[in-house]
């Protein structure tokens, strides 16, 4: 299938061609016709599959095809959970709307509000916003939603995780009752379906990936290591593998700052981004990382959600997330849009529960490798047997302990009790990104 078969205008096709795309991704092929129909849509797709274009393209098409009652009034509102994602969506709208007379703007916190007010007063057709700043602007009388035609909730699952449900309810009360509603999420979790009941009308459902699938082309490993030696192991990996661009996930803001400082002291260009950093600092860090002047970007989950870095070769989980679903989002920063990628998790003995939760979620055992000189003093127990997801209405089975195959040593490097741990040969200098 090609983009012109989806019914997109010549202006959009020219913009798509300029971006170098020829064929729509699965989510685009399914969601674009659904949005063009004018009906409400709820769509789920794993990260990195092109879902931003799946709603920006048809929104631009619909708005450009019909003359507005009043030019440059807000006709489409796109809500995102983070500043970085808002900026990314705004860039997508700008890129694809290049040959259209529509105006767009992006507003979020962490920067001065007056320039945003000035832009809104000049007129905007498409507004991309984070919930908090949107409500601030409305409270100051700077927003009029009387002409609104389309509402988008992007990364709806993350909005709920970040506690935006109250803000979303407030915003919904401000909007016209007659409008098209679009909800995009990584999953159709129960909380998402509950949310859709409140504002979607007989929506078209679009889902192109299994509920908790990780990116197919992302290779994944677990490196068991003592907690106190994680920093040294990360430095070893960066240097020995000659990594020039790696996104590292930390569970906390303080941990992200500390790790970045340790890497800088070791002579590795690094910085941290998280919610306490100013928007200017976060933007500069991301630009330096994309340009290659920064080797390591240490981020928390909230700051990294929505980061779109083309051909990012690898990510590292310095800490495993407390919520297993966040692992899926983290490793989805690499292996985007059909590219390959690698994900490494540094796991200490106190993280075995998180590791088991992740493996149960993705229904897959992650291979383990031991790095010479970093074998843990405290053993990371073997993976628990995978359990099939419980069917609704059934009682969970009683835990019966490890099965007959639990914890067996495999060629992939998993080790159970009574088996010698496989040792991994230290990569030779110049081995590059080889695993």
From TrEMBL:
Its main location: cytoplasm. It comes from the Bacteria. PROSITE patterns: DEAD_ATP_HELICASE, HELICASE_ATP_BIND_1, HELICASE_CTER, Q_MOTIF. It catalyses: ATP + H2O = ADP + phosphate + H(+). Its EC number is 3.6.4.13. InterPro entries: DEAD/DEAH_box_helicase_dom, DEAD/DEAH_RhlB, DEAD_box_RNA_helicase, DEAD_helicase_RhlE, Helicase_ATP-bd, Helicase_C-like, P-loop_NTPase, RNA-helicase_DEAD-box_CS. DEAD-box RNA helicase involved in ribosome assembly. Has RNA-dependent ATPase activity and unwinds double-stranded RNA. This is ATP-dependent RNA helicase RhlE. It comes from Candidatus Seongchinamella marina.
């Amino acid at each position: 299938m090609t983009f012109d078969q989806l019914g997109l205008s010549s202006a959009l096709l020219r913009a798509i061609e300029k971006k170098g795309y020829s064929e729509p991704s699965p989510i685009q092929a399914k969601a674009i016709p659904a949005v063009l129909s004018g009906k409400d849509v709820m769509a789920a797709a794993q990260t990195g599959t092109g879902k931003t274009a799946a709603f920006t393209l048809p929104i631009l098409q619909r708005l450009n095809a019909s003359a507005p009652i009043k030019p440059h009034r807000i006709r489409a509102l796109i809500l995102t959970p983070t500043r970085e994602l808002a900026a990314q969506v705004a860039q997508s709208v700008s890129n694809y709307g290049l040959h259209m007379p529509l105006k767009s703007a992006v507003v979020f916190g962490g920067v001065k509000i007056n320039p945003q007010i000035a832009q809104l007063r000049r007129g905007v057709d498409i507004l991309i916003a984070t919930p908090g700043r949107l409500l601030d602007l409305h409270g100051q009388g700077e927003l009029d939603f009387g002409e609104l035609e389309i509402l988008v909730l992007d990364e709806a699952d993350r909005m709920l995780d970040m506690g935006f449900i109250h803000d979303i309810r407030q915003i919904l009360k401000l909007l016209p009752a007659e409008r098209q509603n679009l909800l995009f999420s990584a999953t159709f979790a129960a909380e998402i379906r509950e949310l859709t009941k409140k504002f979607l009308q007989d929506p078209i459902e679009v889902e192109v990936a299994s509920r908790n699938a990780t990116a197919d082309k992302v290779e994944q490993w677990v490196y068991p290591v003592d907690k106190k030696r994680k920093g040294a192991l990360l430095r070893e990996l960066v240097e020995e593998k000659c990594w020039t661009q790696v996104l590292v996930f930390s569970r906390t803001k303080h941990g992200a700052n500390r790790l970045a400082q340790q890497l800088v002291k070791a002579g590795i260009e690094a910085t941290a981004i998280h919610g306490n950093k100013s928007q200017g600092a976060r933007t500069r860090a991301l630009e330096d990382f994309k340009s290659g002047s920064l080797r390591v970007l240490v981020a928390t989950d909230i700051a990294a959600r929505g980061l779109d870095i083309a051909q990012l070769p690898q990510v590292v989980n310095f800490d495993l997330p407390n919520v297993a679903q966040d692992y899926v989002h983290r490793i989805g920063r690499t292996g985007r849009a059909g590219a390959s990628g690698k994900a490494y998790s540094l796991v200490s003995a106190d993280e075995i529960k998180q590791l088991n939760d992740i493996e149960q979620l993705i229904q897959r055992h992650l291979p383990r490798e031991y790095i010479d000189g970093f074998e843990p003093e405290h053993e990371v127990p073997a993976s628990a047997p995978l359990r099939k997801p419980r069917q609704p209405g059934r009682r969970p089975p009683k835990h019966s302990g490890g099965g007959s195959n639990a914890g067996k040593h495999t060629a992939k490097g998993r080790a159970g009790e009574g088996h010698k741990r496989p040792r991994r040969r230290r990569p030779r200098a110049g081995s590059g990104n080889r695993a």
